[in-house]
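INFO batch 0412 | record 1 of 1 | parsing
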Amino acid sequence: MSNVIPFRTRPAVPPPEIDIFTAVDAAIRDLRDIARGCDAPARAQADECRRMLERALFAAVGEM
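INFO prediction complete | emitting tokens
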């Protein structure tokens, strides 16, 4: 019978903290990239979502 030695697991590294403006900006860029590879209905939905995020980001930045 063999003797199994369990190894300690390394704790997961937490993701870096980002602010909401950076997260929205990244989502806008991701949606632009995703829309390029979609069919027409999905592209339209991704583009509308991107435009909504752009309007919200521009409004929030303008309030600063």
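INFO post-check: The mean pLDDT is 89.
INFO record closed
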